[in-house]
Amino acid sequence: MKISEIEPIVLSSKEKGAATWASSMILVKVVTNNGLVGYGEAVPTLRVISVFNAIKQVSKAYVGKEVEDVEKNYHEWYKQDFYLSRSFESATSVSAIDIASWDILGKEFGAPLYKLLGGKVRDRVPVYANGWYSDCVTPLDFAERSKEVHARGYNAMKFDPFGNYFNWIDEKGLRESEERVKAVREALGEDAGVLIEHHGRFNSKSSQLIAKRLEKYNPLFMEEPVHHEDVDGLREYRSRTKVRVALGERLVSLKEAYFYVSEGLVDVLQPDITNIGGVTVAKKVVDVAEARDVEIAFHNAFGPVQNAVSVQLSSTVNNLLSLENFYDWFPQWKRDLVYNATPVEGGHVKVPEKPGIGVEVNEKLVDELKTSPEALEVKEEPVWVVGGTWKGYLK
Ligand SMILES: O=C(O)[C@H](O)[C@@H](O)[C@H](O)[C@H](O)CO
Ligand SMILES: [Mg+2]
Fold it and tell me: With a cut of 0.90, is the ipTM above it?
C-alpha cells in the first residue's frame, strides 16, 4: 500500500483552552493508493506556519513510499534531512506522518496499535492532570481547584507555581511558590502525586534553591528544572539535590533521549510522540529507558490524536509512571474532534479497541474548523503558561 497523499490541516477556534497553543491544532491526514486514511498530529505552539510548511517538505519524501515501511521511511528522512537532529519542525513533521502511518497499519490489519506493538500490559492507563489551574494565583485558588480535580478522580496533578519568575528567583518568589505548593499538598493529602512544572526556565542556582524549599512537600518529580540546553546546570542540580527529575518534551531523537538516560540525568522521561519521531522512535526510547529503570510519562498536551496514540503506547509500556492528560481541560471541540473518545474515569483512561490509534476523526468538524496557518499571538504571558496564572504579576 503506497502513500498517495499527505495533507497538513490547521484547525483553530475562538474557544480558549488552558493555554495560548490550546486553541489551535495541526492535524496530518495520510491517504494510501487504495483509499485507507490515517491521522497524525504535530506540535501547534509558536511555529504553526513553519510546521505546516515543514510537513509539506517532509511529505515529498513520504509520498510514493510503502506505508507499512515505517522504519525504512523514517531512516530515509534521517538520511535526507541534514538538520533533523536540530530541527523541531522537521522532527514534528516526520512524527505526525509516522503516527498516521501506524494508524493506517492498524486499520489494514484490523488491530488497535497496542496489538501491533507487542500487546498491552494494562487495560487502563493511569493519567495525571494538567491545564487544571487556569486563573489560579493565590494559594487558596490552587488549594480549592486542586480539591475539585481530586474529587473528579485524579490522584496526581502537575502545575507551575513560579508565576512570572524567569531565569532567576528571589526570596519573594520562593516564598510565594512554596505557599502554593504547600496549599496543594495540604489540600490533596500525603498520598497524592504533586508534580512541579518549571517549564525549563531557571538557571541551575535558582532551581537548586527551589528544590531545597520544596523537597519537604515530597514532589513526585521536578519537571525541566533548568533551561533545556543547560546540561552542566542539570548535572550540578542532580549532584546537589535529592529530588526526582522529569524531562523529555523537547527531545527530538532517539540518541538525544539515550544521552539523558545513559548519563543518569533523568528519573522520569517524557518523550512526546509528536516530536520524538512518532511511534517508530518512541517505542525505542521506551526500551532505552527501561534498561536503566527510568520511568516513562509521555508528554501529552496538544490534541485528541496525540492523546489517542499516547494512550495506545502507554498501555504497552512496562515502565510507565503515568500519562499526562489535558483531556478535561481541552476546549470542547478537541473532545468532539474524535469519535469513541477516551474520557478519564477515576484517574484512568480505558484503552480503546478500535483499529489504529483507536479513535476516528470527525471529518465534518475538521472541515468546519479548518483554517489557513497563522502566527499565534505573542503575549506577555508566554505560550507555555497556563492562562491567567500571571494575572497577579502583570501591570
Ligand atoms: O508539560 C507540559 O505539558 C508542557 O510543558 C506544557 O505545559 C507546555 O506549555 C507546552 O508543551 C508548550 O509547548
Ligand atoms: Mg512540561
Answer: yes
